[in-house]
Amino acid sequence: MPHHLLETEDVVSDRPDVAAVTDTPLASLFPLGVRAAVFDVVGTLVEPAPSVPVAYEQSAIRHGVEVSASQLSSRFAAAWKRQEAIDAAASPQHVTSRTREYERWQGVVSDVFAGIADAGTSENIFQDLWDHFARPTAWQPTAQGPAIVAAAREAGLDVALASNFDERLFEVAAVVEPLVQAAHVFPSSELGWRKPATGFYRAVEARLGMQPTELVMFGDNRELDVVAARRAGWHAVLLPLVGLGAV
User: Fold this and answer.
1) pLDDT tens digits, 38-93
2) What span, in angstroms and rounded, lies between the C-alpha atoms of 203 and 71?
3) For the chain, where are the alpha helices, taking DSSP H only?
4) Exposure check for the chain: N or C terminus, fewer CB within 10 A?
5) CA-to-CA distance for 32 and 198, rounded, in angstroms?
6) What are the C-alpha distances in Å from 169 to residues 73, 130, 133, 149?
7) Where are the domains of the chain?
8) Which CATH number fits domain 50-137: 1.10.150.720, 3.40.50.2300, 2.40.30.110, 2.30.30.520?
9) pLDDT under 70: residue ranges of the chain
């Protein structure tokens, strides 16, 4: 299928003071010369259903621990930041593996339930949650994700997933829309790098056999998906598209 691309750098700005262009075809999101659209996964194309705090609350209840989703939400945010700091302090920064990703989530759950559940119960909750988020039923499409992936395919582009996920993404991406539309699935655990490392983007380039200017990254995180991608020489678009709603 031929490309239907406009000669533009970034139709949708990632700056909060610039409104998104909403009256042009979605194909205009793909700059001239781009051969592949690479998508972040969580928050960009799919989202947890139920939400992470609710899933944690439900797992805790199954293991005899009474705690509210709102309390778990703030604890999760703090635990996540701690693991991000550990990866940023690694040498080299943001290097990862299947083992590191498993340990990362163990650390998150341990911190979330510190002082609430004993170590054994916390480990049981972790195993429960690890299995939960590996199930396709734990995920649902975002409002804009399916249409933007469809637009990329209509434009004749390769579609790839590149995410700070782990090997569980393979199982989820084999079933959940619009992830199933992607021809390539690149979890960070398999690339050996987490975003925002430039190594993450270089690893994707190597696997696709493409140059940085031939790739456009779509994601919901300004630093990890837009700033880091542009630093690596890629095009990048911040999602969701402001003012577009569900498309």
Assistant:
1) 999 999 999 999 999 999 999 999 999 999 999 999 999 999 999 999 999 999 99
2) 38
3) 52-62, 69-89, 98-112, 119-132, 145-154, 168-173, 188-191, 198-208, 228-231
4) N
5) 23
6) 23, 12, 9, 17
7) 26-45+142-238, 50-137
8) 1.10.150.720
9) 1-25, 27, 243-247
